[in-house]
Amino acid sequence: MSESEAKKPKAPISLSSGDALDLSSASAITATARARLIVIAGAEASGKTTLITALYESFQAGAFAGFLFGGSSSLAGFEQRCYRARIASGADVADTTRTKIDQPRFLHLIVRKSETGDGRQHLLISDIAGEVFRLARDSTTECKKLGFLVRADTLVVLVDGEKLAVLKTRAEATTDAFSLIRSCLDAEMVGAATNLMIVVTKWDEVQAAGESATGYVDHMDAEAALRFRSRVKRLSFLRIAARPRSGRGLVFAYGCDQLLKEWVEHLNGATPLMPSSSTPVRQIERFTTLHKAT
Amino acid sequence: MPTHHLIVGLPGAGKTTFLAALWHVVEYNGVGAGLTVERLDGDREYLNEIRSRWLKCESQLRTSTSSEASVTMLLRAQPAGDTMEISFPDMSGESFRAQWTTRQWSDEYNDLVQGATGVMLFVHPVGISEPHRIDQADELVAALGDVGGGGEVQRQEVPPWNPDDAPTQVQLVELLQFIGAKKRVGMNLAVVISAWDIASRSETRPTEWLRLRLPLLSQYLSANDDTWNTTIFGVSAQGGDFETDAERLLTEHIPAKRIIVVDGDTTSSDITAPVRKLMITTRA
């Protein structure tokens, strides 16, 4: 090596990008830690990204739902998604950047029970454009392309409360959600090992619409139970208002604490994304499954 | 066996002021110093320069990336205890902010991280960027009598996201995550809340202050107590505001007595306390 080469400053060392993870990066996390895969599905503008940001924003103020924030490999990704709802953006009205139709992305969140100090739990939460799920709803072939669904510990199907609040659109909102679930079941992308959550978003809109709307949601839950309970591992229903309108009497991230608890606490016994070292074959199978989706 | 420690903090966090006061105490062997210096390798001129400003109650000049200095001291625990060689790179806060914004660090810093056994993380109570949400402001406006909140969401053009705008606590968590990702063993961490004379006006302890003002960082440290063996200190290396309290501070015959160090319920003038914390054998 010449003297000039020896004196040449070394190139900076790249650190993790902090962006939302692609399937490859998500798999890298599952290779080193027990992680749960949460797939959030729903129509365009049903509140998928807003739900994710509400969870993250809640930890900004302190322990949430009995959990401590334990870190994240996608801090910058969370920040980008929160930006339009922050004062620092200069926006007048809180908003969420629409998710692009792109490769599936995952936000990584580590939580730890605040009281018992139990082990850290890694969550990989999908942020996928609604258009992708519309295609999956309409076509078994398209649904089968979503290979990551097979690995989902929990499939969260969002039903847009804003549409449920309006007589003209509520039936269609329900039908769309049920069709998506049915397509996923028929394509065998979800099944007896999957926790299914049907979550009504923008609950403040439903409440504001009155008893007719809230009663309809009860009816929808009953219908869903009849159709799907026997086909999945666990079926649960929640109402949330991730970012309720001012004056509606609901707190920020209303219902999201219960959602997080369900993801973490009711998954005990579910198959982790990264199995124990005693099952190497299945570990490879799962890794492959994740990559098939790309 | 020398131990190496990192001094980490965003711009204006009080790193240089701390180092100036520490250098004075360990070199001058001031009151109740838990450590004294036996030997110094590095830029004595730089240390003397920042000490001079500290002694005269003059604010430190902002450390630029071009004026970064690394200092290695052989320190002896008092009274007549063990010696330990420790090194501190006094890096500019801009260098740390750049780690968050550009997602890279220098090869030299990477070596420092690899060899470090402890970290002093500085935070300053003034200038913390908090994650204020628009809906929180809406609530305040509504409470003041504006009904608001019922209109349709109007999408508007906003400037693209700039990582500089991220909350302070998010940036600090990421800086620690960067370090933690390079280490396979736990590390001692001394969190130094600078300008404690300002921060402590609400009569809280350092741990409580961190929980209230930087809750995400506080949670992260609690949730990762196997990675970070953390002690939180409130430190006023100046002893007060140089703008308003300089006259009172200058009348103190022993400059080291200006210093305020709070560790839990204990208050002292021993600025070596956070450093001694780093010298405790790190858990594997």
Which structural category fits the helices and strands of chain A?
A: alpha/beta
* SS element count, helices of chain A: 12
| Lateral strand order in the biggest sheet of chain B | 2-3-4-1-6-7-8-9-10
> The biggest beta sheet of chain A, please?
7 strands, mixed
- Quick one: how many beta strands of chain B? 10
Percent helix of chain B: 25-40%
Low-confidence stretches of chain A: 268-294
- Mean pLDDT of chain B equals 86
Category from helices, strands and their pairing of chain B:
alpha/beta
Q: Into which percentage range does the β-strand content of chain B fall?
A: 15-25%
Q: Largest chain-chain contact?
A: A-B, 50 and 52 residues
- Report Rg of chain A: 20 Å
Shape of chain B: globular
- Taking the alpha carbons of the first and last residues of chain B, their distance comes to 17 Å
Helix content of chain A: 40-55%
Keywords:
heterodimer, A: 294 residues, alpha/beta, 7-stranded mixed β-sheet, 41% helix, B: 284 residues, 9-stranded mixed β-sheet, 11 helices
What does this structure look like?
The complex is a heterodimer of chains A (294) and B (284). Chain A has 294 residues and is of the alpha/beta class. Chain A has 12 helices and 8 strands. Chain A has helices at residues 3-7, 23-32, 48-60, 75-82, 130-138, 140-144, 161-164, 167-186, 203-209, 211-228, 256-265, 280-292; strands spanning 13-14, 35-42, 67-71, 105-113, 121-127, 154-159, 195-200, 234-239. In chain A, a hairpin with a 7-residue loop joins strand 4 and strand 5. Chain A is globular. Chain A starts with a helix and ends with a helix. Mean pLDDT of chain A is 88; it is low at 268-294. Chain B starts with a strand and ends in a 5-residue tail after the last helix. Chain B has helices at residues 15-28, 44-55, 93-102, 107-115, 134-143, 168-182, 196-199, 206-213, 215-223, 246-250, 273-279; strands at 3-9, 35-42, 69-77, 83-90, 104-105, 116-123, 187-193, 228-236, 260-263, 266-268. The model of chain B has no long low-confidence stretch (mean pLDDT 86). Chain B has 284 residues and is of the alpha/beta class. At the A-B interface, strand 1, helix 3, strand 3, helix 4 and strand 4 of A face strand 5, helix 4, helix 5, helix 6 and helix 9 of B. Strand 1 of chain A pairs antiparallel with strand 5 of chain B, so a sheet runs across the interface.
